[in-house]
Amino acid sequence: MSDVKAEIIAVGTELLLGQISNTNAQWISKQLADNGIDVHFHEVVGG
């Protein structure tokens, strides 16, 4: 387990309303995990 922790924050009302999927957060999480960085949270806020 890595000592580095990450949180991904996405901005967009369309994400909150379920109009689109947050594929960017999915991709970023995979890239971070592949480089030994643990993602602990995904946060979405309206924009």
Short description:
The chain is of the alpha+beta class.
Number of helices: 2
Q: State Rg.
A: 12 Å
- Taken as a percent bin, the fraction of beta residues is 25-35%
The number of E-state strands comes to: 2
Structural class: alpha+beta
- Give me the oligomer status: single chain
Overall geometric form: elongated
Q: What order do the SSEs take from the amino end to the carboxyl end, as H and E?
A: EHHE
Q: Provide the residue-averaged pLDDT.
A: 94
Pfam families: MoCF_biosynth
InterPro entries: CinA, MoaB/Mog-like_dom_sf, MoaB/Mog_dom
Domain MoaB/Mog: 7-46
Protein name: Molybdopterin-binding protein
Features:
single chain, 47 residues, alpha+beta, two-stranded parallel sheet, 2 strands, 34% helix
